[in-house]
Design a protein that fits this description.
About 80% of the residues lie in helices and about 0% in strands. The chain is built from seven helices and no strands. The longest helix is centred in the N-terminal third of the chain and has 24 residues. By secondary structure, the chain is mostly helical.
Length: about 130
């Protein structure tokens, strides 16, 4: 695996900053009351920069979930081919849950996200 370039690291830092800023603002002020302009301003980037990373404010919330899903399915694909499908799925879920539990920041963020999903019908629709 190649080492990420400085440009790649900076892009990932900006993505993370936008995600964290949005989650903080959504939690503090509500999803509907938080604009893309406010997220960008609080993160110290332009509106254009925001849209380079995310097509909408909903996408900010679901970006981590989408990446986690990719990791989950890749882990499932790496299971031994002779393993029973149900067993492979179960082992992958347990592996994924243990990794998530080991990171208290990730666990706290997941709880905040689920609270936002529960409070906003438009987010629940996207989640479904």
């Amino acid at each position: 695996m190649t080492k990420p370039t400085l440009r790649d690291r900076r892009k990932e830092e900006t993505r993370r900053l936008l995600e964290e800023t949005a989650l903080h603002l959504f939690t503090e002020h509500g999803f509907r009351a938080t604009s893309i302009d406010r997220i960008a301003n609080e993160a110290g980037v332009s509106r254009t920069t925001f849209f380079r990373y995310f097509p909408s404010k909903e996408a900010v919330l679901f970006s981590r979930q989408d990446r986690d899903a990719d990791v989950f399915w890749e882990s499932l694909r790496r299971r031994p081919p002779e393993e029973n499908a149900l067993r492979a799925f179960e082992e992958t879920i347990v592996e994924f849950a243990r990794a998530s539990e080991a990171d208290p920041v990730q666990k706290e963020r997941a709880l905040e996200l689920w609270a936002l999903y529960a409070a906003n019908p438009e987010l629940r629709a996207r989640l479904a």
